[in-house]
Amino acid sequence: MKKLLSLLLVFLFLLPCLSFAEETEDVEEEWEELADVKDTLLATDVFYHTPNELSAVKCDHELCFWNLEMGRMDEEAIWKVLTQPVTVLTGKQREQVRILAEPDEKCTDYVGVVTCTSQGVHVLREEGDWSLIEAYSSSEEGSAVKVFAEHFQGWVKTSRLKTEEVDQTYGLVVDKLQQRLYVFKEGKLFSTLLCSTGFAKNKANLFHETPAGEFLMVSWVGGFQAETLWCAYGIRINSGILIHEVPSRQETNKAGETYTSYARCERYLGEKASHGCIRVQRQLTPEGVNAKWLWDHLSRKPYTKVIIWDDLDRELCYPSDDLTLYYNPNGGTNYHSQATCTMVKDKYEPMTAFTYGELDKKPYNKLTACPACAPMPRKEKIDELNSKSRKSQ
Which domain of life is it from (predicted)? Predict the structure, then answer.
């Protein structure tokens, strides 16, 4: 009888703990559901595409850049790709190789151009001394191979291929459709920045389009002059294409004093605007990241990997009306993605919440998107981004 009573007491003692454990599991499931719901609130692709999906020769890897769904913010999959080794062509950093349509040294039919050392190529198969590869062509202005930023498959001597290990702490993703640069750290999305990739206005300057693909940050070039513009913190990723701070130039005020102005180019962050380089915001994100931070923190050896998602035939949907945004009701002129932002004084934080569905209503209809914390753009801006995405012929 005493033994039975003891067992009963133990059961009664453990009952609340068992109940609590069940409640904890329920709470965890609810949080997972909420996390899934949160992902669906943002602007995402209407349909997801992969770089290899329309290729003549299909990719048979379990996961790599070429079968990664562009635009899908799958942290685990993206991080696996960002930390994989890269296959490049041997040669000098700005040397470019013409890729052949056939595995024959006498072939003069060139299907694309690859930049040595920094541009990753996808090896599809080997035949004797030759390898079939795919990439996005890096033809520049004046190139005899007029294949600009287009996907191709072609042949190169296998002896030119080399495998490069990459940094395992940081990696970058540039989305040409959303015009965002995503910084990943140790497997997680760390910070989101506004950027501007190349904008080909017409058929005469298609070389301005930034090629997609895999790239390595191979050279800390530093600041350079581009006509009247100064581009600071330049890091080479593909021949003449660099990641750098949004350009500035010297202006003179009414008093005759010279000052540095970013106004000309900063207003275009979040849309295509450059001649091929990737312009990055100078304003600090809530995580303290900007173009200078990239210069200071990213690995120079082993190289940091950059993957660039193409925008060809991609289309964004609108964010959910339930998406939470923030603003400062005490004279603030911007709307924000987070309750705290480097553009707002501490005394006004945390800011007041409202929803994306209210963005076109007073008092939110006059607010502009914050240049620091990269909030989701307004519907008309999404329409504009979709209109500027490249369409297949």
Answer: Bacteria
How many CB atoms neighbour CB 292 within 10 A? 14
Q: What is the pTM of this model?
A: 0.89
- Cα dihedral angle (175, 176, 177, 178), rounded to 10 degrees? 50
Looking at the chain, list the stretches that DSSP marks H as alpha helix, in order from N- to C-terminal side.
2-41, 75-82, 263-266, 291-297, 379-388
3-state secondary structure of 351: coil
Closest CA to 302 of 218, 242, 239: 218
DSSP 106-159: T---EEEEEETTTB--EEEEEETTEEEEEEEEE--TT-SS--EEEEEEEEEEGG
Q: Terminal CA-to-CA distance of the chain, rounded, Å?
A: 86
CA distance 180 to 278: 10
**What is the C-alpha separation between 214 and 121, in angstroms, rounded?**
7
What is the fold of 170-309? L,D-transpeptidase catalytic domain-like (2.40.440)
CA trace torsion 240, 246, 248, 253 (10° rounding): 160
With tokens 């999959």, the residue in question is: 77
Structural domain boundaries in the chain: 65-164, 170-309, 324-388
pLDDT (tens, 9 = 90+) of the chain, 393 residues, equals 444 444 444 343 344 443 434 444 443 444 344 334 445 699 999 999 999 998 999 999 999 999 999 999 999 999 999 999 999 999 999 999 999 999 999 999 999 999 999 999 999 999 999 999 999 999 999 999 999 999 999 999 999 999 999 999 999 999 999 999 999 999 999 999 999 999 998 888 899 999 999 999 999 999 999 989 999 999 999 999 999 999 999 998 888 888 999 999 999 999 999 999 999 999 999 999 999 999 999 999 999 999 999 999 999 999 999 999 999 999 999 999 999 999 999 999 999 999 999 999 999 999 999 999 999 999 999 999 999 899 886
Give Cα 353 to chain centroid, integer Å.
Answer: 27
Which of 71, 75, 74 lies closest to 50, judged by CA?
71
